[in-house]
């Protein structure tokens, strides 16, 4: 693959050399001119060998292979559709319902506790009232009688106050209970929807598990051959164009977005000395000649 890329470079540079020699020069001039061109060529050639030429060819190849793998992974994702996203949405809704339910259940139980304490208190007050009621006929003075009556009255007042509070609690409890049962039915509804969707996704995951494992391990192997910069470039573009991070320059057009690429740029892309991305869609561009080789 690397040799092919270098051969392309040679062809590009050899053409003008030949024509200049044959048309414009005498034999003696031709030697020095030829020597000069050879030196120029060697400079270029050795740069290509020693610096980025072959390295980029390898990188572009990896980009192409990664694109094919990511294309297949994207197809699998397509099969799963919105399921994973919907499942996450339902899960977060369930969480929020759960937290509301927990708050409201706590409110409810503290109101119930208060109510039963008030009922207990009232019961003991009523017993006291009954006791004082019997005692008031055994008194030996008016003063004693008045005191007992006063105590009975104040106990009655307490009981009445408690009954008002109990009524308020009952109303509030009914309201919260209705809210809780509404939340519970919403929760159950969403939960069964979740179970359904999760079962579907589990089925699909099972179906594609093997394929995904193979593709992912191939992907990791290829990705590990890339330098950090190339890796992050590819991953960034793959996020935008899932499974289509790399495009082929076909007849001067980007195969990703079909926009045309200037002829000079097409030549530069073919030389594979640098990594070029499409100015319209941002995909990594690989020459059709290169990708065919
Ligand atoms: Zn494009």
What does this structure look like?
With 293 residues, the chain is mainly alpha-helical. Among the domains are: 1-51; 83-222, Helix Hairpins. The protein is 81% helix and 4% strand. The protein is built from 8 helices and 4 strands, in the order H-H-H-H-H-H-E-E-H-E-E-H. The protein has a 4-stranded mixed β-sheet. Helix 1 crosses helix 3. The longest helix has 83 residues, at 142-224. Mean pLDDT is 85; it is low at 1-31 and 36-53. Zinc ion is lined by residues 247, 254, 256-257, 259, 278, 280-281, 283.
In short:
With 293 residues, this protein is mainly alpha-helical.
CATH architecture of the domain at 83-222: Orthogonal Bundle
Helix share, percent: over 70%
Q: The CATH topology of the domain at 83-222 is what?
A: Helix Hairpins
User: How would you write the strand order of the largest sheet?
Assistant: 2-1-4-3
Task: Please state the overall shape, judged from the principal axes of the Cα atoms.
Answer: rod-shaped
Radius of gyration, CA atoms, in whole angstroms = 43 Å
Features:
binds zinc ion; 4 strands; mainly alpha; four-stranded mixed beta sheet; 293 residues; Helix Hairpins; disordered N terminus; rod-shaped; 81% helix
Summarize the topology.
Blueprint: H1 2-24, H2 27-50, H3 53-80, H4 83-135, H5 142-224, H6 228-240, E1 246-250, E2 253-254, H7 263-271, E3 276-277, E4 284-287, H8 288-292
Parallel strand pairs: 1-4
Antiparallel strand pairs: 1-2, 3-4
Helix pairs in contact: 1-2, 1-3, 3-5, 4-5
The structure holds zinc ion.
